[in-house]
Amino acid sequence: MTSPKAVDEWFIECYKTHKGHPLQILVAIYKGNYSKFFLAVVFFFIKHSPVLVLPIITANIINDITTNAPNLMRNIFINSIIMVVLIVLNVPMNYLYTKYKSQATRYAERGLR
């Protein structure tokens, strides 16, 4: 583990190197934590997938009911199972998203203090 003084100097150097370019400063501050941010984004999208899939499943169920599909109950059951699985995934994905995002953010906060 690096000493706090070395971390302070590294953050100051990042600021001096990219002075006048706030986005480059932000990217440089999080250097070494890109994988954690990538994982956080992946888990965020998995966590929010029920919101993206719900309209499609609702439309499938409405279409099956209005067209009097021969496999109506089977289709409703399959669509319901898909939604239940996605909703159950929400809790662990939220945990993983928060964990990785927090780890990357804590590193930058520690250096900025």
UniProtKB/TrEMBL annotation:
Transmembrane intervals: 37-57, 77-97
Keyword Transmembrane: yes
A GO molecular function held by the record: ATP binding
Keyword ATP-binding: yes
Annotated keywords: ATP-binding, Membrane, Nucleotide-binding, Transmembrane, Transmembrane helix
Superkingdom of source: Bacteria
Alphabetized Gene3D superfamilies for the sequence: ABC transporter type 1, transmembrane domain
InterPro entries membership: ABC1_TM_sf
Main location: membrane
Location within or outside the cell: Cell membrane
GO cellular component annotations of the record: plasma membrane
Membrane topology: Multi-pass membrane protein
Protein name: ATP-binding cassette, subfamily B
Protein's organism: [Clostridium] fimetarium
Lineage of origin: Bacteria, Bacillati, Bacillota, Clostridia, Lachnospirales
